[in-house]
Design goal:
Jelly Rolls, 4 helices, twelve-stranded antiparallel beta sheet, 238 residues, alpha+beta, 2 domains
Length: 238
Amino acid sequence: MLLALAALAWNVTPAYSTVLTTYTDLASWQAATSGVLTADFEGLTPGGPVTNYNTASGISSYPNVQFIGLSSSGSNLLDVEDTSYVAWAAFRNFGTGAAMSQLLDRPGNGSPLPYIHVIFSTPVTAFASDLFTSGPNGLSFSITVDGTPFTVAAIALPNTKFWGVTSDTPIASADFTLQGTNFNDGSHEFIDNFRYGTAQTQGPPPEDTPEAATMLLIGSGLIGLAYRRKRIKPMQTA
């Protein structure tokens, strides 16, 4: 019994939470990262101003990262568009060249929002991108990083919004969803210059929580008491 309690105290797992740091300035994010790769989506519209990637594999043209577009019905929905194309210069020419995009149309306003799912085949500890929207401009993104949500407001034409994050633990995936859209208003979310790499500073090793230290002290005390009682012999009566 005493040995079991001691073993329990020794094996209590310390509590540790991931620390995510966000950035709205490219230079600051770059200073905090290394080994950065960039998916700029250039060359992915060979057939004209728009190329569809509506497949389960989505866009997998870059090392260690895959972009998958998911619609409200669960089917795949993802494009790469030339944002400099003259025919739509009036409403979504952000002048960034090719950019990944997703149409937010869906059966009804109560339908789940489409989103872009980003998967890192080998977890990274930093990523960032330029964000913008059309129909209308300046909508907000909901970006979920391994379960932690962030809200990022885009900027009106012709500006793009930079947003980045670093983590002290590996990031396996992220989701990008555009908020404030109607089911038939033709809203688009755009992601360009998607950067990913390694955070310069990793988190400190986990420390024992007060609960773990307390359990360890209790276990050690119980073992000591058992040892002492074993050595003290009962007094003999005449």
